[in-house]
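so my prof wants the structure for this chain in the tokens format not the other one, which i didnt know existed until like an hour ago. anyway here's the sequence
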Amino acid sequence: MTDFFKAILFLNYGLLLSIILLGAAKYRILNNKEKQYFHCIAFLFFIELLNLVLPYIFNLNDTSFLYPLYIAGEFFLITALFIRKLELPKYLIWVTALLATVFMVSKYIYDYPFNSDIVKVVSNIIIICLSGFALIREIKGVSVPNRFLLADACIFFYYSVSVFIFIIQHQIANLSENDYYIILSANNILSSILYCSFLYTFIKLKK
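here's what i got, hopefully its the right format
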């Protein structure tokens, strides 16, 4: 199971790199709202690159300090994306930025909350609500044509299932190593589906 986990993990690295290269090549044909998708992927790529480089090049095996940064950055970028798409009041972007900053300060300085997964679940639920509302508007034909509809649907699917996986993971006491890698592999497979939706969308993009 460990080998399977690593195979999926490195597949995701390859998908992220492909999206970054393709997205950079087509960045000029993206409108302001669509550019936010590229920024989100670029941030995820940056975090994954650090997770890969720090242990293998700098022999820093514990990269858990990146987790609060990942949660805060992911939350801010994705919520800001949907706030703009839904044309919600712009001050909400500042609210999400403040929440992300408060969490990082609280975690890095005071180590509160002790379990960052709690914040991760809450942030995922907020993302689910925003992406779900955007999909409903798209289905009803209220919003303008959405070239990233597939990506939006996969974002909603990924974060919905991820919340379920997090809850299940913390309900199971004394996880064996094999069970732990099964859960991580399932989450990585969901990430692969999400990244493939971005890759497909960027491939199909035209002026």
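also thought this was worth mentioning. The chain has a mean pLDDT of 89.
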